[in-house]
């Protein structure tokens, strides 16, 4: 099947060239465009609404070629009869944007956040997408290099037992780092995790609190995984390729054994020629 083959290729191709790879695959198999673009998370893009405020764009706030701002609830470029959340969800969306923008300031210091909600089939159910993007320059010790962090958190919220709701969260983080160290190394990757829990939810404020706690816990876990597992493995690979501490540990023992072996071989042959 063309879609399965395209998704398999995306998993194997460099994450740093995701957008170009998607464009090429759509050219090759235009019949899978909609399914492919909806199945693959892409780096977040910036737009500016009529009030001058920046917001993030993705498939969840797109209608045609226009994107809805979470701050003004209007589309850019303007779109007549664009799909917007119900009044109940818009009230939750406004609270969530305020709360997650404060979260962004606390954890990211700078960057842009955007939160979008939309209705599901059942009246009491809804979905939400919380987005964060941060670009950084001068990330290495010599004030060069650059990095980018894109985080997409998608909630599916359904009614649970009496007075509660079930929150299913799927989170994806896309990280890209370009540094002049080690020969202009470019590291890029993507990590996805899920969590599900049931919480008491009787108001719009409680929904935002529940989503915030769950998102915070999962994002911290994912950051630790990136730092200790993925970058830890990268450091291990570098240590095997080039060891900068030539007199330490196992490497020192190996060097000593090699020197002794060479010395013994030279002695057996009567020593170096004069």
Would you kindly provide a written description of the structure presented here, covering whatever features stand out?
By secondary structure, this protein is α+β, with helices and mostly antiparallel strands. The protein has a domain of 157 residues: Aspartate Aminotransferase, domain 1 (Alpha-Beta Complex), CATH 3.90.1150.210. The chain has 7 helices and 10 strands. The strands form 3 sheets. The protein has a 5-stranded antiparallel beta sheet. Strand 8 and strand 9 form a beta hairpin. The longest helix has 38 residues. The protein is globular and about 85 Å long. The protein starts with a helix and ends in a 6-residue tail after the last helix. It holds the Pfam family F_actin_cap_B. This is F-actin-capping protein subunit beta. It is found in: Cytoplasm, Cytoskeleton. Belongs to the F-actin-capping protein beta subunit family.
Quick recap of the structure?
The chain has 274 residues and is an alpha+beta fold. It has helices spanning 2-12, 18-28, 33-39, 87-107, 181-184, 204-241, 249-268, and strands at 45-48, 54-57, 62-63, 66-68, 75-76, 112-119, 126-137, 146-159, 164-179, 185-200. The chain has a domain at 85-241: Alpha-Beta Complex (Aspartate Aminotransferase, domain 1), CATH 3.90.1150.210.
Features:
Aspartate Aminotransferase, domain 1; five-stranded antiparallel sheet; three-stranded antiparallel sheet; CAPZB; cytoskeleton
Give the strand tally: 10
Major sheet, described briefly?
Answer: 5 strands, antiparallel
By CATH, the topology of the domain at 85-241 is Aspartate Aminotransferase, domain 1
Strand order of the largest sheet: 6-7-8-9-10
